[in-house]
Description:
Layout: E1 4-8, H1 14-26, E2 29-33, H2 39-46, H3 57-77, E3 81-84, H4 97-100, E4 106-110, H5 117-130, E5 135-138, E6 150-154, H6 159-172, E7 177-183, H7 195-203, E8 209-214, H8 220-231, E9 235-239, H9 253-261, E10 266-269
Parallel strand pairs: 1-2, 1-4, 2-3, 4-5, 6-7, 6-9, 7-8, 9-10
Antiparallel strand pairs: 5-10
Helix pairs in contact: 1-3, 2-5, 8-9
Amino acid sequence: MFRDILVVLGAKGVAASYALSFARHFEAEVTAVWPAQYSAFDAIAAAQTRDDLVVGEEQAEEGAARTLEFVEQAHHFRVKAHTIAANDFGRGKPRNLPHFARGFDLVVVEQPTPEQHAFAGGLIGSIVSGCGRPVLATPYIQKDPASFDIVVVAWDASASAARALGDAIPILKRSKSVEIVTVANGKADHGSPGGAEVVRHLARHGIHAAFIDIPGGIDAAEMLLSYVADSGAKMMVTGAYGHSRLAETLAGGATRTLLDSMTIPLLMSH
């Protein structure tokens, strides 16, 4: 059950509003953090200069504005909310954001815009690979509040897909339609549960699901994105593939493609 949610405030502000609308479904509390201190990732990639690692006044002011906006949104949604100011992050709390996120049930992040991809993409990668919690990424174009009417679960019988499925059960219980989707690529692990077994497992949780096997293509992630666009799905659930080397990258090509091109919220577990 999601009772304690962390939202990483983003440039577009959609993660905050989506997290608050999501929290209402679960009577959850939401804590917001503005990760200004992670400007180091962007600075290293962009300039390789020592002075660029300092968080400037402009970033601090932006963080304060985003935090205030979040508080106002929380009041509107009538959700109990908490904030962590950029300057206070690390005082009595872990300085490492992925480690800090381990103390929550769910982490909500915002898909990076093309302009901020170097920094935000690395930040999301470090959170997904290092927090040990499900991460819900919202498209930066997201306008609608959280909805679970149709949920697509990407299933490839991997350990991360199984973890994502388990993490998503509270959401699936609230869904009107659950679709277990496999992209046929000839690489299935025949010793692992297939779609029919997943449908049976969910039935024991009181969740009715349908299994759909779609033809494989050049890129499995692109096939999934095409399918969810046609299905009217409101959320996709998937395992995340990557590693935590340098705590800033996701190595999995499929995961990167989904994060880059998603048009609906994406629940990931690693």
